[in-house]
Design a protein that fits this description.
This protein is of the alpha/beta class and 207 residues long. The protein has a single domain, classed as Aldolase class I (TIM Barrel, Alpha-Beta Barrel). It contains seven helices and ten strands. The chain has an eight-stranded parallel beta barrel. The radius of gyration is 16 Å and the shape is globular.
Length: 207
């Protein structure tokens, strides 16, 4: 099985094109003002317009007003929505658009119940938990907390980089992996060599 990969926190055309050239299946745009990787709508639209075919444009939102999500989706041309806050299943499916739901994993979180609750999601994105931080912590979490046989595909995030992505894939066997800080030279500014190394790690991983 080929593992898919998303490079998130894209803020520059050249970084998106590097990700695509290295084999990334998707690029992510953060529309959350508190994030250092927040990108304005006009720039995101320019980046999406420059993408080659078959690269999915994903918009990340955190407890955003529904009208704002709709406006940004239309203006940017997003293919997939990613909800990273406390959104309800009813909210997430109200856009009549494909979406993934991000969850910050901790021992008391019932992932099986969440998979059932968000049955309309295309996948669950599993990230590290840190109090008061919606994501992008650069930390891994205990992968053993992921139960076998989840009813939704798993997108693994949280502290991944070229050094550990192979082990992560072998242990978790996710549908896809998601990286942001692990391929950066600065927050929101990607590193060509790190993207290439990360994608080699994904493509070389044995599952």
């Amino acid at each position: 099985m080929r593992i898919r990969a998303k490079i998130c926190g894209i803020t520059r055309v050249e970084d998106a094109l590097t990700a695509a050239r290295c084999g990334a299946d998707a690029v992510g745009f953060v529309f959350y003002e508190k994030s250092p990787r927040n990108v304005d709508v006009e720039r995101a639209a320019q980046i999406v317009a420059a993408l080659p075919p078959f690269v999915t444009a994903v918009g990340l939102f955190v407890n955003e007003d529904a009208a704002t999500v709709l406006s940004i989706r239309q203006r940017v041309g997003l293919d997939l929505l990613q909800f990273h806050g406390d959104e309800t299943p009813e909210y997430c499916q109200s856009f009549s658009a494909p979406y993934i739901k991000a969850l910050r994993v901790r021992p008391e979180l019932n992932l099986i119940q969440y998979a059932a609750d968000f049955s309309s999601a295309r996948a669950l994105l599993l990230d590290a938990y840190q109090e008061g931080v919606a994501g992008g912590t650069g930390k891994t979490f205990d992968w053993d907390l992921i139960p076998a046989g989840l009813s939704k595909p798993v997108i693994l995030a949280g502290g991944l980089d070229a050094e550990n992505v192979g082990e992560a894939i072998r242990r978790v066997r996710p549908y896809a992996v998601d990286v942001s800080g692990g391929v950066e030279q600065d927050k929101g500014i990607k590193d060509v060599a790190k993207i290439a190394a990360f994608m080699r790690g994904v493509l070389d991983a044995e599952v």
